[in-house]
Design goal:
Elements lengths: L1 H28 L30 H5 L42 H9 L5 H5 L3 H9 L7 H4 L2 H9 L3 H8 L4
């Protein structure tokens, strides 16, 4: 039996190689995105929006839809209208606190809050539910973090200088 197998082994390997090439060609041919060269610009230098096409509208319904209600939580109000007044920022003397000490608030969020005039733990600790909704609406992709990560509770402990209470409730800062 091994003599027969050794005789057909090269044919089996060639057939497998031909099959692999055929599968690759079929997969390549069925790709939906194709670059069509029309000579107007280098293929990789063109952008559909440069040619005057409008942005895709398929996700507009998701963008415009009100936020979903999570299970076991109170309903979330719709984001504040664009012309709604933002809470007046409290001036931060001396550069402010290191807001990144709050769990769930990294450097990008700290920078964004700084642009909104929020630089102190005491400011965050004093937020009302309405102010939380207004600030949260301005956080873009970080929306929802204020309540999920309990920023107000953390800020209350940090602004009071209660490091022990903060560590007991939220863990040590790394």
């Amino acid at each position: 039996m091994s003599a027969d197998f050794n005789t057909y082994l090269p044919l089996i390997l060639i057939a497998l190689a031909v099959l692999a090439v055929a599968v690759w060609a079929a997969m390549r041919a069925s790709r939906k995105a194709r670059v069509i060269e029309d000579g107007s610009a280098p293929a990789l230098g063109r952008d559909v929006l440069d040619e005057g096409a409008a942005p895709a509208q398929r996700n507009q319904a998701l963008i415009d839809a009100p936020r979903a209600i999570a299970v076991n939580q109170e309903p979330v109000s719709a984001p504040a209208p664009a012309n709604a007044p933002t809470p007046a920022p409290i001036p931060a003397p001396g550069g402010g606190d290191d807001l990144t000490r709050i769990k769930g608030l990294g450097p990008k969020l700290s920078e964004l809050l700084g642009q909104l005039g929020i630089t102190r733990f005491a400011q965050i600790a004093a937020w009302t539910p309405q102010e939380i909704d207004q600030i949260d609406a301005q956080l873009g992709r970080f929306s929802g973090r204020i309540t999920r990560d309990q920023w107000v509770e953390q800020a209350k402990l940090l602004s009071a200088g209660d490091e022990t209470g903060f560590a007991a409730q939220f863990g040590r800062n790394g």
